[in-house]
Structures are given as structure tokens and as C-alpha cells.
Task: structure prediction
Amino acid sequence: MDLLYQLGNGFLVALKPINFLYGFLGVLIGTLVGVLPGLGPVAAMSLLFPVTFKASPEAAIIMLSGIYYGAMYGGSTTSILVNIPGEAASVVTCLEGYQMARRGRAGVALGMSAFGSFIGGTFSLVGLVLLAPPLTKFALQFGPAEYFSLMILGLAVLIYLAHGSMIKALIMAAFGLVLGLIGLDVISGYPRLTFDRLELMDGIGLVPVIMGLFGVSEVLVNMEQVIQRDIYDVKIKGLFPTLRDWAESKWALVRGSLIGFFFGILPGGGAIISSFLSYAVEKRFSKHPERFGKGAIEGVVGPETANNAATGGAFIPLLTLGIPSNVVMAMLLGAFMIHGISPGPLLMKQHPDLFWGVIASMYIGNFVLLILNLPLIGLWVQVLKVPYKILFPSILLFCLIGAYSVSNSVFDIYMMILFGVFGYLMKKFEFEGAPLILAFVLSPLLENNLRKALILSQGDFSTFFTRPISLACLLIAAFILFSPLIPALHKKREEIALEEAS
Amino acid sequence: MRSRDIIASFFWLLIGAGLIYEGYRAELGTLQEPGSGFVIFWMGIVIVGLSLLLLFITLFKPAPADEHPSPWFGPGLSKVLIISIALLLYAYALIPLGFLLTTFLFMFFLFKAINLQTWLVSISGAVISSLVIYLVFSCWLAVQLPEGILR
Result:
């Protein structure tokens, strides 16, 4: 009963006009960036970060969350109509979605993926509501050693899932950890890596780093290449699936919801990996696997359901443990901190309005997306036709103003440009930004817990190995990091990276 | 990728060495009480170790026979350089010239020089985008944007 009461309160918070407006704007902008190739949810969230400063913490988190799951909805549109994924989690939707469009079934593919997204998103939120309270109680047993080991596990998974060389991903994570430590040491007050610059005493801001790495560098890469878009120009009809479509998709919906939710919870997992896994499972379970690659509806519904279900799952580690499981959640952690709130086991008690308000807003957001997206698909198709040369000046301008407005400092703009060029070169040398960002955000927390654990154990490193939860996390992390040395697992990892890259 | 990986290894080797030095300078402390430079020092060691490993693997792993290295840069490299310089100039001019004028000039430059739009489109695009952003950030969000010479 208490759960329902809290959830009811959450709905009251989410339905406040200002919160509803921010949520609505979030899902709308999220869908837009999901539709537009070359601008993912991370970049969009960082661009709109400054817009949330004036808002209440509830409205800010509701809006940023809306961008995240809105982008998951929108990503399918480009995959189906243009064969270019709007964001990484929709890569696999291209395989069957575009084939369906070529066979005149674009409407069904778009409609069914919207319904699948709705069902997956709703399922994951029910899971979130049921799992979060017991997990919060469990998390209260965590000490510094457990937190440290859990963060190491999160980083290990993200490094494992990075494209290409794991050594490069490890270097990025190590560098990200150092970047996060720049500034005054909170314990001793010693300025670290500040090079006598006053602006660096408080450390490097999250916004300039993210805008540089994901906004400016993306523009630079896109400007260097000639982007060709081949929009499948056909009148979209029959958005509402028939009974036969539902019958063909029902198990894909169930499996996609389960896969997405549970893989979303895992640190480093999330929408991308669950969509790939869902596609593989659908192909394996299909009675007619020969239809795959020629427009099988289960191949669209499964991944689209999974990537939306993963968004709800991904909130669990952040809201209950205070640990982001992926880069988007790291951005949200940054937003929480900017508003002076530390997510974690105490969030539900200390800020029940925020905790339940955000969850309730996601229910509402999912519903809004469904009724918003089906009639607006024609509009999104038009948006797709906006040439990149018109878009990129606006993206750059948003990056500039966004970086400046965090602390009214030109120095932040220089930092953003520096990270933009760094991100561009990183892409040239095939280094990935995600491990760097996650490590950057986790770094102060990780160092703090490491030092606390060592002080409490009087310098005894075995504290990390004698506590069961910590030991389990470290063992799993070690297995993940050393698994490429096992030939079969190394092959599997390369397959995942190859599928994602293609 | 071979030459790129070798360059990257040396770059990270230097960064790692710098971090070891900085970490040591910031005081390592003891295991009982780790100092300010403890994590930085060890991360420096990790980066040095990993870059040596990357260098070792690159040098001793035979390159696949059918490997055709992709070109370093695409056809639009000059645009990348021009945009980077334009961004730096924007940051440099923002305080003395003010937000509105700098943003107008920056957007006009992107529309005209990079996108090769007509004068009318470039000017109207630059005016509209500068004003809209100014209204949203300055009037709605109350961000204090530099006024510069328009004060």
C-alpha cells in the first residue's frame, strides 16, 4: 500500500504543470535528436543542461530523463526510413526495419516499434518500482570498499563493451579518472594538476567535457565526411498493426521487455547491448529464421522493445546506489549533483518527491510518446530532410552558449574546444569517449571511497577481498577484463564490437 | 592503423610519465593514509604500462595482408580546421565584442563561408539564431551574457 501511496504522490509531482511541461519538452526533444542522425541523447542532454539550471531538481531530472527515453523512440524512425540509426541502440533496427520499408510496410514497422517501445518502457518502469525499494535497503549495507569495487565493475563492463582495442578503452578510463581529480583535493586542500590556473581549482566541468567530446567532435567528424542520406520516399500508411502483426510480435514483445530490463540494470550494459541480444534471440527462436534480413517484424519489435525497456532498468543502479551504469546515467548524476542532490540509497527517503516524481513522469512520458509519435511520424520524416549544413551551426552555437552559461566563464569555452579537438583526434586514432566520461564522473567518488576504505582498514588492501560483495564485484571485473585472453570469449567480444560498428 | 597506434602509444607514454611526476609531487602518502597524489600516481603507472603494451602489440603483431589503411583525414579537413579556428576566435572575441555581435559574426561566417549560402540567407539565419538564443538564455533563463561594445 505504501508503494502505491508513494507512486500516487509521484504522479501528483509529475503532473504539476511546470514538471509536465519540462517532461513534454524532454520527450519531444529526445524524439527529435533520436530522429536526427549525428546527434545522440548524450549530446542533446549536454546541450540542454543549462536550460535545467533554473528549473527545480524534479523538473530538471524529468526533462533530461525524457530526452533519454524519447531518443530511444525516435531512433527507430531513421533506422526504418533511411537505414541510418538515429542513435546507437537503433543500429540493429536497420536490418529488418529498412527491409520492411522497402516492401511497403514502413507504416507497420514504425507503428509496431512505437507500440513495442511503449510496452517495453512500461514493463521496465513496473520493474523499477518493484525492485528499487528492496535494492535501496540492500544498498544501505554497502561500505566504501563495496562502493569502490562496484564502480570498478561498472568501468570494467563498459571497457569490455567498447569498440576495438580494450587496451585503448582502458587508457581512456584511466585518463578519465585523472581528469576527474583535477582541482583542490577535498581532504588535504592540495591543488592537483591545476598548473596554477585559478579556473582549474574547482576542477573541469562536466558540461564542457561532454559538449566537446560528444557535440563539437561529432560536428567536426561529420563536416569532414560527405554525408549521404537516402530517404525511402514513400507515403507512410497503416501505422496501426493488424491482429496478425500483433500475433507475430507477441513473444518478441515479452522477450524484448525481459532482456532490455535485466541488461539495462547491469553496469555498462544498457540499451545497445540489449537490442543486439534481443535481435539474436528473436532470430534463434523464430520458426522461420530465413525471413530475417528480408523484413521480419520480430526483428524490429524485439530490439525496439528491448532498448526502451533498458532505459528503465538503467535507472536502478543510479537511483538506488548512486552509481551510473552508462554515460547517459553519468550525465544524470551530474544533473543531480548540480542541484545539490546525491542519488543513492537515501534518495528515496530524503527526496521522495523527486524519486517517485521522476518514475511517475516516465510512465506519463511513455504514454505521451505513443500518442505524440504516431501522428507526428510524417513531421519526423520532414525533419530528416533538413540538411546537416543547416543543423551544424545551431549545434555549435548551443555548445558554445551551453559551455559558457554553466559558470559564465570563457575558460569553459576553451576547455570545450580543447575536448572537441581531442575527441575528434580520438576518433581518428580509434579511442572511444564513453569509458572516459564514465570514469571522469565516477572519479571523485571512486577516489573518496578508496581512500576511506584504506583509512578504515589501516592500509590493509585485503579489505577489498574479505568483504563478500566487494570480492564478488572485483572477481567479476577481473574476469571481464581478462576474458579476451580466453580465445572463445575474445571472439565473442569482437563479434559484438563488429556488429555495433557495422 | 599501425602508424597511428605507434603515435598514440608514445603520446600516452608521455601523458603517463607526466602523471607519475605530478602524482609524486602532490604527495603519495601511505597506504594507511593515501595522499593527494596517490591515485594520480598509480593511474600514471597504469597508462604507461598500457601504452607500452599497445606499442609492443603493434610492433610485434603481424599486420593482416589485406589491410588497406584508411586515409588519415577525409575530404573536408579544411572545414574542420576552419571551424576549429572560428570556435577559438568566438571564445576570444566574446567578452570584448559581446554576445550578440560575436554570435552574429560567427553564425554568418558558418552560413556564408562553410555552407556557401546566399547573402540574404546567411544574414537572416545569423540574425534569427543570435536573437533566439539571446532571448532564451538571457531573458528566459537569466544567464548573464556579455554585452561588450553594445553596452
User: Anything to note?
Assistant: Chain A touches chain B through 61 residues (CB under 8 Å). Chain A is about 75% helix and 0% strand. The longest helix of chain A spans residues 106-139. Confidence is low (pLDDT under 50) at residues 498-502 of chain A.
